[in-house]
Amino acid sequence: MSTLKRKLSVKEVCGTLPRMNAGDPSRSLMHIIGKANRVKEGVGDFGPWQKLMGQFEAVNLETGEIFVSPQCILPEPMNGMIAGQILNAESSAAPVIDFALEIGVEASGKAGGTGYEFTTRPLVEARETDALAELRKHVPKLIGAPEAEAEAEAEAPKKAKKK
Fold it and tell me: Residues of the chain with pLDDT > 70: what percent?
């Protein structure tokens, strides 16, 4: 069973992470899959932010807990890369970007701060998909659909010959 969250982020899925020291081993924290179709932007205490909107599911790799949400914030630079794909999509319809990632943590070696940096590893290549493709398979003769219009035009001469 999954738990519904307002948004998915490393903190929401894995909790507050302990400080890491140089030499601590890196580790995987979570897997996240999603269909992002919109970007929400704002400004907070730490500057500008972008939140991905769509359908998302994450699993905490330590506990096995599964979380779902319509909102997601990924570690940078991955969040910005997916947001950029949505904002720069070539399709005229609302774009949908599918992705699957493993998010981990490694010691940063930088003085101060948390002592760690997030890592992201794509499990599949993020790509734009056609959100209606599956429905088109089940309803092939939608009125006004380009395929249906082309099919109707091809059938017209055959029907005219039969008369």
Answer: 81
Q: What is the pLDDT of residue 74?
A: 97
How many whole angstroms separate alpha carbon 110 and alpha carbon 74? 21
Query: Which two structure tokens, joined as six digits, stand for 34?
Result: 């999603």
Q: Please tell me whether residue 53 adopts helix, strand or coil conformation.
A: strand
What pLDDT, on the 0 to 100 scale, is given for residue 126?
Answer: 80
> Which pair of tokens denotes residue 20?
């890491």
- Could you check whether the bond before residue 48 is cis, i.e. omega within 30 degrees of 0? no
18 strand-pairing partners:
none
Cα–Cα distance measured from residue 160 to residue 129, given in angstroms and rounded to the nearest whole number: 39
Residue 91 has what pLDDT?
61
Which of 23, 111, 39 has its CA nearest to residue 81?
39
